[in-house]
Write a sequence for this structure.
């Protein structure tokens, strides 16, 4: 056999082995975490995606394995089972993305779970409607769906606005003519990357290595660029912020019509803790928006920055090589929200009563 034919035969054998190994390992906990996640992270016909109701599974976040439990509404909870649509107690509905969902952390150790335990003696129930990769378009549309289609009643909504929301609004989502939140078509590079990851063990491993190499204390994915980099603000930040504002305006109007209280919270990424940026574009914008719309504003920057500006101090509140909070970080968020008067805000809201 010629050297050229031998090379082609070896390449073909490797490709078959590579694809076969990828499919085989897709079912294992180590390499198949994305497959495991797809079992309970489901599409939604109105607001793009959600968590499946009444599941009890082992979720995966990087190398972490943690318990994921949802109730009948698909909200993360400590137990499965039905949620009454109406309650004699006051209800706090949490909205946010992966931070508020609490990826990598058992529900009881997330700030949602901690608030639930802390507020129960005051007659306040906490419902966590947050899901990974949510953004203002989904905050608005899911709330509308819960109120009008599901018939859920609650008194106060707290929206935890993430830095990534702005990029998601600019590049990830749009509202179609039917009022549904749908995904924007991915670019060629993003589509090709996902296909290679799904079909090749080599590219799956290479992608993991690349993401790991980027997973430093600073913001590894550039989600905060729009707050500090003028070119990135012009590239997508200005558009994304305008879209986020428009959807939050709709959410505010929806809740105001029903007498439901609204609060918004902003928080730093590790890099912002280290850089000690207490008054970034994100903070200034949403503080002004809250004042203009009668929404309570919860600034969590000071609580994190009180820990100090050293990388080691900041790292203590975050999952290693990640921007998401560990259990200690969630505890800090719970403490800061209560210190800023969240319980009184919920207790004083008029809400939609039974």
């Amino acid at each position: 056999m010629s050297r050229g034919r031998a090379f082609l035969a070896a390449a073909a054998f490797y490709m078959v082995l590579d694809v076969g190994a990828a499919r085989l390992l897709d079912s294992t906990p180590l390499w198949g975490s994305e497959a495991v996640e797809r079992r309970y992270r489901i599409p939604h016909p109105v607001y793009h995606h959600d968590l499946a109701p009444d599941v009890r599974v082992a979720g995966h976040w990087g190398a972490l394995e943690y318990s994921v439990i949802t109730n009948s509404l698909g909200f993360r909870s400590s137990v499965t089972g039905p949620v009454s649509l109406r309650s004699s107690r006051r209800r706090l509905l949490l909205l946010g993305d992966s931070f508020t969902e609490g990826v990598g952390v058992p529900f009881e150790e997330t700030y949602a779970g901690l608030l639930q335990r802390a507020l129960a003696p005051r007659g306040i129930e906490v419902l966590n409607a947050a899901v990974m990769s949510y953004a203002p378009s989904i905050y608005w549309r899911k709330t509308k769906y819960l109120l009008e289609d599901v018939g859920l009643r609650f008194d106060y909504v707290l929206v935890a606005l993430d830095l990534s929301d702005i990029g998601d609004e600019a590049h990830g989502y749009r509202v179609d003519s039917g009022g549904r939140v749908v995904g924007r078509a991915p670019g060629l590079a993003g589509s090709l990357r996902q296909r290679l990851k799904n079909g090749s063990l080599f590219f799956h491993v290479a992608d993991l290595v690349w993401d790991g190499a980027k997973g430093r204390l600073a913001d590894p994915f550039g989600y905060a660029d729009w707050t500090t980099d003028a070119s990135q603000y012009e590239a997508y930040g200005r558009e994304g912020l305008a879209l986020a504002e428009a959807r939050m305006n709709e959410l505010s109007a929806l809740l105001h019509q029903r007498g439901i209280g609204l609060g918004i919270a902003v928080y730093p990424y590790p890099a912002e803790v280290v850089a000690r940026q207490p008054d970034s574009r994100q903070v200034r914008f949403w503080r002004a928006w809250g004042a203009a719309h009668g929404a309570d504003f919860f600034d969590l920057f000071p609580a994190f920055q009180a820990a100090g500006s050293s990388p080691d101090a900041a790292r203590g509140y975050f999952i290693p090589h990640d921007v998401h909070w560990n259990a200690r970080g969630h505890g800090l968020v719970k403490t800061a929200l209560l210190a800023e008067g969240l319980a009184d805000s919920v207790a004083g809201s008029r809400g939609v009563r039974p």
In short: The mean pLDDT is 84. The chain has one domain: 39-189+216-348. The two ends are 81 Å apart (CA to CA). The chain has 16 helices and eleven strands.
